[in-house]
Amino acid sequence: MDDTQKPDNAGTSRRGLLKCMAWAGTGIVWTVAGGVPRGLGLGEAFAAPMDGFTFVQISDSHIGFNKEANPDTNATLQAAIDRITKLQKQPTMVLHTGDVTHLSKPEEFDTAAQILKAVKQDIHYVPGEHDVIGDDGKQFFERFAPKLKTGGWYSFDQGGVHFVGMVNVLTFETAKAGGFGAEQLEWLEKDLKGRSASTPIVIFTHVPMWPIYPQWGWATEDAPQALSYLKRFGSVSTAISTRSCKRSKATCRIRPRFRPPFRSRPPGKAPRRAR
Asked: How many structural domains compose the chain?
């Protein structure tokens, strides 16, 4: 892949994004009020009032990565967990939106599982493309979702919100982009049937459902069909883990991303990428 491609600005390349990986273990604290999520960084959340239903999203731990960008991913993940445990209002649960490991090696999964044991809340996972290398996610699902009877996708209700975890990284080897596949889309349609249009929905995936930068695989090819099933709901949000690198003279951040409700946007028009 050409390092000269730039999804954000002239100062950002794929190599530049890797330099931001030291922040991959950070997270976001989400509060849900009136069916609409609002997010704060873990550091900001210490001083902010946290009322109602809250949950934390972490992502891109990349356990096993040890290059210059982040030579100690174990410590980065541990730091994020330490911040979660010190929050004055403890979250109800945690979402991990993928790339738990860097190369899907057994020892990387072992290390990640050991570190994540410190989280007291239930953790709900979806895989990233780095978690499914060579085995279509067999190790990942055995360790982090052993009770699932589907192909790795699932849903649950918490705090008055319907959460849907979807897998869109199994097509990277061939399509070099995200994709759900017919079976998962059929499951999603059935899962949403019968639910009131006023039910707040949160879809969490690794690859964005919106075409943020298809040249790098940052898009889900069959997402329009999934979105068509969601149009009738009043509040639909998507939590993704795409690395968002924002540069200034002294800062560079990678954070999980949350796409706010899109219902109010004109039909067929994708929301503008947040900066």
From this structure: 1
Per-residue pLDDT tens digits for 182-191: 999 999 999 9
Amino acid at 6: K
**28: in domain:** yes
Phi, psi of 37 (to 5 degrees): -80, 145
Q: What is the pLDDT of residues 16-51, one digit of tens each?
A: 444 444 444 568 999 988 878 888 888 788 777 788
Q: For residue 248, what is the domain's CATH number?
A: 3.60.21.10
- Residue range(s) defining the domain that contains residue 131: 14-259
What tokens appear for 69 in the block? 């960008």
pTM of structure: 0.83
Is 2 among the domain residues? no
To the nearest 10°, the Cα dihedral for 84, 41, 29, 37?
A: 180
Contact indicator for 17, 246 with CB cutoff of 8 Å? no
Q: Nearest CA to 130 among 169, 95, 103, 165?
A: 103
